Amino acid sequence: MGSIVLDKVQKKFGDVEVIPPLDLEINDGEFVVFVGPSGCGKSTLLRMIAGLEDLTAGKVNIDDKDVTEVSPAKRGLSMVFQSYALYPHMTVRKNIAFPMRMAKIPQDVQDAKIEAAAKSLNLADYLDRKPGQLSGGQRQRVAIGRAIVREPSAFLFDEPLSNLDAALRVGMRLEIMELHTKLKTTMIYVTHDQVEAMTMADKIVVLQAGVIEQVGSPLELYHTPRNKFVAGFIGSPKMNLIEGEEAAKHDATTIGIRPEHVSVSKTEGTWKGTVGVAEHLGSDTFIHVHNTGLDTGEGDLFTVRISGDIAVSHGDTVYLTPDMDQLHRFDAQGLRIA
Amino acid sequence: MANRTIPRLLQTPAVLLLLFWMIVPLAMTLFYSFIRYVLNSTVRPEWTTPSWSNWRGFGNYEFVMNSKDFILAIKNSLFIVGSILTLTVVLGVMIAVLINRSFPGRGVVRVLLISPFFVMPAVNAVLWINMLLDPVLGLQGIAISAINDMAAGMQDAPLVGWFFNLWPVLEPISFRATQTSAIAVIMMVTWQWTPFAVLIFMTSLQSEDQQQKEAAVLDGASRWSQFRFLTLPHLGRPMAIVVMIQAIFHLSLYAEIEIVSRGNGNKNLPYLIGEFTNNNIGAASATGIFAVILANIVAIFLLRAVGKTLME
Amino acid sequence: MAIVAKTSRFSKIAWPTLAWVVALIFFFPIFYMILTSFKTDADAVKAEHVFFFTPTLENYANMSDNYDYWRFATNSVITSVFATLFALIVGVPCAYAMAFNPSRGTKDILMWMLSTKMLPAAAVLYPMTFLTKNVFNVFDTHFLVIFVLCLINLPIVVWMLFTYFKDIPKDIIEAGKMDGLTTWGEVKEILIPLAWGGIVSTALLTFIFCWNEAYWTVRLTTIDAATLSKLIEGNRAPEGLFFGRLSAVSTAAVGPIIVLGWFCQKQLVSGLTFGAVK
Fold first, then answer.
1. Chain C contact for A291 (CB, 8 A cutoff)
2. Taking CB atoms and an 8 Å cut-off, how many pairs form between chains B and C?
3. Which chains sit next to C, with 3 or more Cβ pairs under 8 A?
4. Which ranges of chain C have pLDDT less than 50?
5. Which of A78, A82, A87 is facing C178, going by the closest CB pair?
């Protein structure tokens, strides 16, 4: 079991309100990702759930029990830190055993669990090393191992992959997802990387300045962003947001069109522009177009994503045609117009 | 948890002890500095017990400020502290730069250099004033008389004799005398504290930005320019800290002065306080308050410098 | 050094040589003291025996008869060890609380503690003498010397430990909390093992400072609790009569500390500058 309910939780540091009163429900077995730009309060929120941060007001319920005043260790949660937070003076074995030792679990049970965890995390050969002798990925696995053996009702991950290099990150992402499929335990995962959020989550919580902008499945967020912020934050490259005259044509203050929902032609189309930079990735081509005459904000930049390769280069004139079915419309408050 | 009690509780013993240590004696000193209070007086026996009825206002302060020894002590304190600071900083920077490179035996050089700092002040003073500086029996006396003997012996020699006839007979210097005892103190304390400056400057040099230096080399800066425009500014802060920490320590020099000359012509404020304490507690306390004020002036700057790095 | 500059053969030899010369000059007084300690009192003042003499151990052998060395040394050991111990017992919890549960006042408390270190001792000479002699009746006792040494070093102890503790990642302590550590468990399982090096060097440095203290140990003792500082100070002016034996007792008084000092010269910097120079 591992359902978590946040009831009007609020956090102030001194007079600064980091998180205004906020409600959130996380169901048992869900993989929930908190995503948002840095400083949006996502880590603070996670730490409040963990019990590492006091609540200024509100309640945290785990499995229908109020745990607001319960110490971190007694909440039955495991946390994996960004810095891994391994105990540097203990071997891998002792690191993994540590929470069980604290809980006074019999030695033979401990040993069995360590063996199992080490096997599933490919750590069997490293059990007697100290964290300092391990690579970043291995340390991350040890941290996960330490979290698993407690058999928590939920796992909390605080940006666990951001200290790893790009290649390793993709691998670890898959491992964590496989772990979730296997254990079916609730996981709450904090990241600033929307790609991680989109690929891993059952449910994404988008935060900005401590406020939940939207909660939904990755595809919901992609297809029906509730406001301009979510629209801009989810998706890569970013959605093109157009204001002014062109938006007014669609009865909106702002219209949005994702780069992948625009087609490019050298001869004809709705909008005309000049190619600034074309990034040829082979599988895709990102074209950054200037001088479209559209009000796209400061950079005068319109981004297009084409599947496959297309022969355009700097200075070429191109014509752009948006897929009207995929147009997003927002009102003056930035909210989505249905 | 919202519980701040445990952290507070853990800090309490240290805070209370230091509070007691600071406030009680200091408050007493402050009180005594405003009353007439002497240990022995046949004429005015009522002054031998501290009491509000012996109130003297700023009388003790006036008395102290008008005493010849006070001016002497202040001047002498500044002379000693100023000289030590200048010497240790200059020598410290030079030596730190000198050994901030790898060469054979660098570890041993470091160990040899740092050693004087761990010599207890009493031994430092006894060693210097007796074994090294004694005008007759110390190394100084021995060396000077050896030179004199050699010169005298050579005066009859053929060819070069006239040359040694030109030599004056060297006089050894007595460092216990009124005029020279401060010099002896400066020497021994500089010897002891230069290693401290070296150590701090070396630590600081090691954190110097090497890429910045490489950039300077590419920009065509000479060794001297690198030192002048990169290293020296980099050492500015440690220099300030070395100066302030030493100032605070040396303003309360005591053992060295006591051992070298028993304050003969070479008093500083702590020594003067010690002398007053033999009888005139009022004056001793007023002098003490002066010393506290003097130390605080330095301490404010030091604390400000230290405070900046505190929470980083 | 990362800079590959052209160094002439001259500077390759000259600078290290100069460094060695400077180091030897600085060490010379100590060397001369040790040398003299192996001379008879008569040899110690003779020009022909400055460097060439028949070494003797009699000065060391007679140290107890001449100076009652061991009594003073025992006092120095007892007071320094216990003062260091108590300073740690009081300082560790304080620094721990400050490093891991800092409040807005923490910085001010630390600065204030440091400022107590800067008060000139002489200013409170009479009150201290009066209090210890007439009020608490502890003058010239081990207890008093330990108490005073502990207090004058407490700010440095707290300060040094604070800088070491602050370097321990907060994440690790939090991981410990998640894993079920109590406050005491945090200290025992994480803090002390991780900061062990720092605690040891703090202890060493405090011990050195206690050993070398020369104001209160001289002023607040007469016989019973007098330390080596007092012993040497009492034999300040032998008028050239006893250079040999005086050198021996001085060497015995500073030798162990110099060796200890070699082991903690790195920590010395942070300890003496209150972490302001890194």
1. no
2. 315
3. A, B
4. 1-4
5. A78
CATH number for domain C74-229, candidates 1.10.3720.10, 3.40.50.450, 3.90.70.10, 3.30.2350.10: 1.10.3720.10
Considering only CB atoms, which chain A residues are within 8 Å of B4?
A: none
Q: Give yes or no for a contact between A237 and A303, defined as CB atoms under 8 angstroms apart.
A: yes
pLDDT of residue C7: 62
Phi and psi (nearest 5°) for A256? -125, 140
The values of phi and psi at residue B252, to 5°, are -105, 25
Whether B136 is in a domain gets the answer: no
- A101-151 pLDDT, tens digit per residue, is 988 999 999 999 999 999 988 899 999 999 999 998 899 999 999 999 988
pLDDT in tens, B173-183: 888 887 788 89
Alpha-carbon gap: C200 to the closest alpha carbon of chain B (Å): 18
Q: Is B191 inside a domain boundary?
A: yes
Report CA-CA distances (Å) from B166 to B158, B161, B163, C5, C220: 15, 9, 5, 49, 56
Residue-range domain boundaries for chain A = 4-228, 238-330
Our CA-based measurement puts residue B7 at a distance from the nearest CA of chain A, in whole angstroms, of: 16
In this prediction the ipTM stands at 0.86
Residue A124's Cβ-side half-sphere holds a number of Cα atoms within 13 Å equal to 6
Q: Which residue has the tokens 């990755």?
A: A218
Q: Are C276 and B306 a contacting pair at CB < 8 A?
A: yes
Contacts of A139 in chain C (CB under 8 A): none
Which candidate, C101, C116, C165, C276, places its Cα nearest to that of B308? C276
Cross-chain CB nearest to A73 (options C172, C177, C194): C177
d(CA A130, CA A73): 24
Q: Does C229 sit within 8 Å of B120, measured CB to CB?
A: yes
Element (H, E) at A113: helix A107-120
For A4-228, CATH number out of 3.40.50.150, 2.60.120.970, 1.10.1370.30, 3.40.50.300 equals 3.40.50.300
Residue B230 pLDDT level (bands cut at 50, 70, 90):
confident
pLDDT on residue C85? 96
pTM of structure? 0.83
**For A73, which residue in chain B has the nearest alpha carbon?**
B1
Q: Could you say which architecture CATH assigns to the domain A238-330?
A: Beta Barrel (2.40)
pLDDT tens profile B60-91? 889 888 888 888 888 888 899 899 999 999 99
Quote the CA–CA distance of B115 and C254 in Å, as a whole number.
Answer: 10
**Residue B250's pLDDT band (boundaries 50, 70, 90)?**
confident
Is the pLDDT assigned to residue A25 strictly greater than 90?
A: yes
pLDDT score, position B1: 41
Q: Do C240 and B138 touch (CB under 8 A)?
A: yes
Nearest to B255 among C90, C233, C235 (CB): C233
Domain count, chain B: 1
Q: Using the beta-carbon criterion (under 8 Å), do A146 and C176 form an inter-chain contact?
A: no
Which chain B residue's Cα is nearest to C34? Answer: B127
Cβ of A181 under 8 Å from any chain B Cβ?
Answer: no
| Helical (H) or strand (E) element with A243 | strand A240-243
The tokens for A197 are: 């959020």
* Chain A residues inside the 8 Å CB shell of B2: 54
Q: Is residue C93 less than 8 Å (CB to CB) from chain B?
A: yes
Q: Domain coordinates of chain C in residue numbers?
A: 74-229
Which residues constitute the domain of residue B80? Answer: 67-122+176-278
Residues of C in contact with B296 (CB under 8 A): 118
Q: Is C240 on the interface with B (CB under 8 A)?
A: yes
